[in-house]
Amino acid sequence: MIKNITDDSLKRIADALDRLAPPENDLPCLSGADAFVWAINPDRLVPITTVNYIDLKLLKGIDHIRDILERNTQQFADGFPANNALLWGSRGMGKSSLVKAIHANIRSKKDKPLALVEIYREDIPTLPRLLDCIRATERRVILYCDDLSFDNDDSSYKSLKAVLEGGLEGRPDNVIFYATSNRRHLMPREMIENEQSTAINPAESVDEKVSLSDRFGLWLGFHSCSQDEYLSMITGYINHYKIKIDPETTSAEALTWSRTRGSRSGRVAWQFIQDLAGRHKVKLT
What we know:
Elements: H1 7-20, E1 35-39, E2 44-47, H2 63-77, E3 85-89, H3 95-107, E4 115-118, H4 127-135, E5 141-145, H5 157-164, E6 175-181, H6 189-198, H7 202-214, E7 218-222, H8 227-241, H9 247-261, H10 266-279
Parallel strand pairs: 1-4, 3-6, 3-7, 4-5, 5-6
Antiparallel strand pairs: 1-2
Helix pairs in contact: 2-3, 6-7, 8-9, 8-10
């Protein structure tokens, strides 16, 4: 029977095996854009041609934090040592906006082709594969995860710990990791307290949980803004977008807007400006 197999039959068998074999994927690369989103199945870096960011000078009430993170990022872009950064604290106070604004400010310099790569929280377990892609290039990369946190029965934080520091291979020299979170230790307080109350050695169990945040050399806290800082944000936006309106009327409307929301923050200020610009037929470009 084997002797009766023709060359044509062998070719058909080979073609069938080729179709069954998984395709060889090229390693995702960091060319063609300054910002990317990491996607999986299949692994790829999706280029973002237009990044949604706010001009750095419009971020008010976080001057000290802005200066620290900008200096750290500039060091990294220049090829010098820099720290991973955890931006934590109040919602809507500009944590993610600051990361994007600083990246935009530095990448505008032609000799600093700094890339920003966002990885979603649920894709953290694939982080080693992403780092393999980044290692293959000399381009310097800010790896960014927005709203990073871990809940009960979530062990993926252990892989992140190894990547940030402590693993055999470690973080590539051309990568820095920035994360934003509402939680200082990236985990809910009740999760840490539960570990402390049920563990044989409570101190060691808690240390295991909070040691993830220790991997970040910079802890930058964002706190609720004062009324003056909130109004300063409003004024900055009005001047930047040249919205012609009486300042006293605007202040009263802005304070009313914040009271209806029950908070004052950069996000609330921007939402008010969008409403104000819409009512006055001004495009926010």
